[in-house]
Amino acid sequence: MNNKEISELFECGKNIATFRAINVFKNNGIWVGYNSKNEATLVIYGNDKIQSPISSKNVDVISSKGDNNYNLIFTLKNEEFYYVFIDFCSYLIDELKIENEEKINKKSYKCWLSFKQLFERKYNEFLSLEQIKGLVGELVFLNDYMFNKFDVYKGIDSWLGCEKAHKDFEYDNTWMEVKAADQSKNEVKISSLEQLDSHVDGYLCVVKMNLSSITSDISISLNNIVNLIEEKIKDESYIHIFREKLLKIGFYRNEYYDQYRFVILSKKIYSIKEEFPRLTKRNVPIGVNSASYKLDLNVIDIFCKEKF
């Protein structure tokens, strides 16, 4: 179900404290609506119990015993987060559709723990434009390079940028750092001494892009590239893994991200070897604990290994 459909079901129960069923399972169920305090509420009922579920400051989560089942109840306490709550409900229902009907409450609660951080942030705090560009760059590399060179599952397993690791990808005893760059700029920023440092040789991928003001076949949004990747994932468990990684970054599908579209202009991979110009903990003066710097793409062009 999309957000509009779910929101319409919620609105049917507003001010009259009623719920609408979403028939996803045969023996279990999902209900959405408003409780007696006129609070938007999602109810999952199944045959498994959640012990002492954790709430957030904006969503209460409780587990209760029903007549023949256990209820897992999510109640929105801050109306400012209504659309985030709708996004959570949509995400949860999508996740449950790809699971069997056993342990529905535990699977729902696991989804909640992944999504919970979004209710701890400031209202409507989406990724910044720079964060969006960086994530688009990593996902373009994942889709266009890793999926073609290896396979979908190895690609997703190798993606560590979502884990706030020093390297965006690690695979086959090597690594890849991905940077998004505007076409008008001939440089990329390296954020730390560790980012291009390793005891093994690695690579730097630079994805050049322009922000586009129009929707066309050659422009993509963050939502577009996420959808494209999910269409290639045939193993349902890996769809969950991929979505979990996106949530760690703070991304979930939202129409907000459709306003930023990018035209991908070039994708280059540079070999990071001993002679590559970079700052590391091994070559900076004693006493320098951290540093960020910019690399001139014209200068490092001699290290270009391939384009894709």
Question: Care to describe what's here?
Answer:
The protein has 308 residues and is α+β, with helices and mostly antiparallel strands. The protein is 30% helix and 26% strand. It is built from seven helices and 13 strands. The strands form three sheets. Strands 6, 7, 9, 10, 11 and 13 form a six-stranded mixed beta sheet that branches. Strands 1-2-3-5-4 form a five-stranded antiparallel beta sheet. Helix 2 crosses helix 3. The two termini are 36 Å apart.
Short structural description:
The protein is an alpha+beta fold. The chain contains seven helices and 13 strands.
Topology:
Layout: H1 3-12, E1 19-22, E2 29-34, E3 40-46, E4 59-65, E5 70-76, H2 82-97, H3 104-115, H4 129-149, H5 152-158, E6 169-171, E7 174-182, E8 187-190, E9 202-212, E10 219-221, H6 222-232, H7 236-249, E11 261-272, E12 293-296, E13 304-307
Parallel strand pairs: 7-9
Antiparallel strand pairs: 1-2, 2-3, 3-5, 4-5, 6-7, 8-12, 9-11, 10-11, 11-13
Helix pairs in contact: 2-3, 4-5, 4-6
